[in-house]
Amino acid sequence: MNSSRESRFFGKGRVPRTAALVQLGCDKNTVDGERILGELDSAGYEIVGLPLELWEKAGETGEETGGSKGWRPVDVLVVNTCSFISPARTESRKAVERAVRLRKRQIVKEIVVAGCFAPLLAHRLPGELRRNVRAFLGPGDLSRVAERIEGKGEQAGQDEPFFRPPARSLDPGPRFLTSSAGTAFVKIADGCDKGCSFCSIPFYRGGFRSRPKEEIAEEIAGLLRLGVREVVLVSQDTAHWGRDRGEDLAELLRFLARKAEREAGIREYRIRLHYLYPSCVTDRLLDVWADCDIFVPYFDIPIQHASPKVLRAMNRPPDPDGIRRIVESIRERFSESAIRTTVITGHPGEGEKEFGELISFLEEIRFDRVGVFPFFKEPGTAAARMRRPRGGFEVARRRADRILEIQGSISAERLRARVGRRYRVLMDTPWTGRSPLEAPDVDGVIQLKRPSVPGRMVDVEIVAALDHDLEGRLVEEKECRKVTQGK
């Protein structure tokens, strides 16, 4: 054991120091959190879970002293923050406040604040809170967590935090998986160059940059060796992958498909893609997608709006007909698919007419699932300087509720159409799993009437549709003939 690893042990019997993670934000942030845990694990820390009861109690104000009986204090608690929209930043700040209460109650010893909101929190937190934080880590600092805790490296001796550029967020390194059994996210790019007027991601994550395809394939191979059966490719702008390297996403899919052929007969797995900017979804990309069974027919394409006027205000292509063509192309190529989108209500430029255009478009296209965000004024963005619709946030919220009501009926209808079909299902828990048409964390699940093994692929027949989920029964091997794969 080397000296650097020995320094992270203490007490009689050389008990390893412990580290826990409070994970906030999206699946891209999940990857960053797993990278931080991977660095700590490699440095000799024992990764532990923070009991939910202790975290919930930390939300209560009151007595700030005294530990928790039967619970050895966590040596390092990492709060991985999110800055996507105002509620995420509020949640992140409250999480730091909870962590400080745990430290004062001697339940945790040191606090590390990480993630895209950390650089701002380093300067905005009141002195009392900031003095309780051992280190702040920005998106480019994932590999530095151990040295920052130890007070070494570039940060040593400085009063102000020093943050590496966000471009370092894609540096390769170890990971400690925290996602459900059999599933893992792989970040293929980071940052964004699109310049949507409502979005602050470029401020926190920097410009768009892709990972080399060889590095992506190597990470996927490593995850498969660990038993992962579904890999989800993520980034802020997945369909733009490779444009900064003279390549495109279709080339990456072909490359990964060739790698998959070498795995044929060795292990069963599938690849899912999230966050496809509409104008980058080309016929060439869809042709490659349809030719390779390893890629599930699930399409996450955020359209944000359908009114040309609002799309122009968003600095996005004002082309709802282009979105129609993409949906038609998908449904022509795949016998069964799931298309998910997200929209924003109450953006500057959206009046009743424009909101009506959005509703009509959603009723026409009939997406399988729709996520809705009311518009938030993000500081520093172009949209923050625009005039909001009359009624402000309250109108945006009511419109979001209206879309959820309409989409609820559409989604329920599309779920009912799947009753009687069979799918290859990846078990997330003993009682729930997902087919190729359900993404982790954001969609419903398939509930089983009898349990199976988490992380295992099983054949399931859908027997009922619920409000958001499906019910299924395990298909015995002797019953299996041709299981619907959605292609």
Major pleated sheet: 5 strands, parallel
Put simply, the count of helices is 15
Q: Walk across the major sheet and give the strand order.
A: 4-3-5-6-7
CATH fold name of the largest domain? pyruvate-formate lyase- activating enzyme
Q: Which CATH class of the largest domain?
A: Alpha Beta
Radius of gyration: 23 Å
Shape descriptor: globular
Tell me the CATH superfamily of the largest domain.
Answer: tm_1862 like domain
What is the SS-derived class? Answer: alpha/beta
Question: What is the count of structural domains?
Answer: 3
Poorly predicted spans? 1-13, 153-159, 482-487
CATH architecture of the largest domain: Alpha-Beta Horseshoe
Q: How would you describe the overall organization of this protein?
A:
The protein has 487 residues and is an alpha/beta fold. It has 3 domains: 18-56 and 71-150, Methylthiotransferase, N-terminal domain (Rossmann fold), CATH 3.40.50; 183-417, tm_1862 like domain (pyruvate-formate lyase- activating enzyme, Alpha-Beta Horseshoe), CATH 3.80.30; 421-474, Nucleic acid-binding proteins (OB fold (Dihydrolipoamide Acetyltransferase, E2P)), CATH 2.40.50.140. It is 33% helix and 19% strand. A 5-stranded parallel beta sheet has the order 4-3-5-6-7, sandwiched between helices. The chain has a 5-stranded mixed beta barrel with strand order 16-17-18-20-19. A 3-stranded parallel beta sheet has the order 8-11-12. Helix 10 runs parallel beside helix 11, helix 11 runs parallel beside helix 13 (320-333) and helix 14 runs parallel beside helix 15. The radius of gyration is 23 Å and the shape is globular.
